[in-house]
Amino acid sequence: MNIQIFGSSKCFDTKKAQRWFKERRIKFQYVDLPSKGLSPREYQSVKQKVGFEALVNTKCRAYEDLYMAYIAPAAREEKLLENPVLFQTPIVRNGREATVGYHPEVWETWE
User: Fold this and answer.
1) Domain range enclosing 13
2) For 15, left (φ over 0), alpha (ψ -120 to 50), or beta?
């Protein structure tokens, strides 16, 4: 398994995901999403699995500040990549598989 956890250090679900993998002694790579972001290829891979709507955190302050609800769909993706704080966390990847949020029931099937 090649697990990557993209998340925020302040996000409780990210911390729960890290703890879940640590308890099972599964090695993972943690990427701080607000500072590093997702590369365009990683973004496309995750979007293909979960869809665009699942990736966007509509409850964060930046969503309202950047007027994401009123932007054309093509521009929304560009704005999302420019502002990684808009991503819903954690994004957990295992090769081509991906989940957004805390989903241990899915992660168990990866083992």
Assistant:
1) 3-56+87-110
2) alpha
The CATH number linked to 26 is 3.40.30.10
Residue 31's pLDDT band (cuts 50, 70, 90) = very high
Q: In this structure, which amino acid lies at residue 90? A: P
Q: Provide mean pLDDT across the span 39-44.
A: 90
Structure tokens at 59: 């409850």
Q: Residue with structure tokens 């992660």?
A: 107
Task: Cis check for the bond before 104: say yes or no (omega within 30 of 0).
Answer: no
In a domain, 52, yes or no: yes
Please tell me whether the overall predicted TM-score, pTM, comes out greater than 0.90 for this model.
no
86 C-beta neighbours (distance < 10 Å), count: 21
CB 54 within 8 A of CB 100: yes
Instruction: State both tokens at 12.
Output: 């409780």
43 token code pair: 């973004």
Question: What is the distance between the terminal CA atoms of the chain, rounded to a whole angstrom?
Answer: 7
